Amino acid sequence: MTVLYNRVALVGLGLIASSMAHAMRRGGLAGEIVGTARSAETRKVAAELGFCDRIVPTAAEAVDGADLVVLAVPVGAMGTIAEEIGPHLAPGATLTDVGSVKRAVVDAVAPHVPEGVTFIPGHPLAGTEHSGPASGFAELFENRWCLLLPPEDADPAKVDRLAALWRAMGSNVDFMDIERHDLVLAVTSHAPHLIAYTMVGVADDLRRVTDQEVIKYSAAGFRDFTRIAASDPTMWRDVFLNNKDATLEILGRFTEELFALQRAIRTGDGDLLFDYFTRTRAIRRSIVEAGQDTAAPDFGRVGTKR
Ligand code: NAP
Predict the structure, then answer these.
(1) What ranges do the domains of the chain cover?
(2) Under a CB-based contact definition with an 8 Å cutoff, are residues 37 and 12 in contact?
(3) 37: Cβ below 6 Å to ligand 1?
(4) What is the DSSP annotation of 197-242?
(5) Is ligand 1 within 6 A of the CB of residue 203?
(6) Which of 12, 35, 61, 136 could form a disulfide with 72 if both were Cys (CB 3.0 to 4.6 A apart)?
(7) The pLDDT value given to residue 301
(8) Gyration radius from the chain CA atoms
């Protein structure tokens, strides 16, 4: 057990922040964990759950004297919070965030970071479709990547310490450039979520026609889509509004491919379909080999711990 930070301030107390608190507690990584959230209800639930040492009403109070401050609110709220806490950040502190989009967050937060405070944007590639303070658990980050995106002039000792924290919480840490992050995540996470939302929307329309059959007979494919499409509406609205260019680029390519497959079905081009599906199956295999998923069948019930 090594205390890496004397006082960690968590701003926002949802899935990610509460999971961080549980993981830091488990590893004895923080001297003290102070938390705050926008609503009195979330603060009350978090206080009852007890994963923070102290819960305070405002972000300005939470960051007071903290050597690590974590912004764990929806992407669209980061700038306002940064403006509020900027004058209260302790000299020498590290400020980080866990937002799913990076360019927009850096542009919104960086102007409010005072001299002497190091801002190291981050993004743990871990989550579930659940949200709120009761949804967190210590194992969320285990064997998942956490991407850190330090500016070139960031103090290496501060970057190392933040990387050590994520590793101690179970993550593998990698470093990435901001633009690359937003494009990679548009492919691996943002566009797939939009497709899942769309598919479930289509099925919902159909359900009115087929009188509940879509729900009753929903097989693994559709059930997996519904799990993704149950993700937090605020978080995902903000992701799309703040990673507009990369998401639209990927959706453009997606539409082109979809048309090609549609055409293959219409013209009976079985070879094209077979070759396409063979290629995509190999990608699944490489994800399993990279340890990012297991080959076990998953019908949307396992691996979705609360
Ligand atoms: P969450 O469970 O929905 O919690 C969000 C927290 O932010 C809550 O404490 C909420 O406070 C607060 N909040 C919401 N809107 C706010 C606003 N306008 N101003 C101030 N505070 C506000 O969210 P989460 O899943 O932990 O996500 C937090 C961040 O992590 C997001 O930026 C998200 O992109 C990123 N992320 C999420 C996942 C995932 O799968 N969930 C994975 C990686 C990264 P109240 O409860 O008081 O409303």
Answers:
(1) 5-176, 180-268
(2) yes
(3) yes
(4) HHHHHHHHHHHHHHTTHHHHT--HHHHHHHHHHTS-HHHHHHHHHH
(5) no
(6) 12
(7) 46
(8) 21
Dmax (CA) for the chain in angstroms is: 67
Give residue 54's pLDDT band: very low, low, confident or very high (50, 70, 90).
very high
Task: Give yes or no for residue 132 CB within 6 A of ligand 1.
Answer: yes
| Rounded CA separation 20/35 (Å) | 11
Number of the ligand 1 atom closest to the C-alpha atom of 131? 2
CA–CA dist 187, 6 (Å, integer) = 37
Ligand 1 centroid vs 15 CA: distance in angstroms? 7
CA 12–ligand 1 middle distance (angstroms): 6
Look at residue 210 in the predicted model and tell me its pLDDT: 64
* One-letter amino acid of 255: T
The first and second tokens of residue 20, run together, are 């961080």
Residues 6+ apart with CB under 8 A from 288: 294, 295
How far is CA 33 from each of CA 9, 49, 179, rounded to the nearest angstrom? 6, 13, 32
Q: Which fold has domain 5-176?
A: Rossmann fold (3.40.50)
CATH code given to domain 180-268: 1.10.3660.10
- Condensed to tens digits (0 to 9), the pLDDT of residues 159-201 reads 999 999 999 999 999 999 999 999 999 999 999 999 999 998 9
Helix axes 191-210, 244-267, angle to 10 degrees: 50
pTM for this one? 0.92
CA of 268 to the centre of ligand 1 (A): 46
Q: Contact, 19 vs 125, CB < 8 A?
A: no
pLDDT tens per residue across span 59-108: 999 999 999 999 999 999 999 999 999 999 999 999 999 999 999 999 99
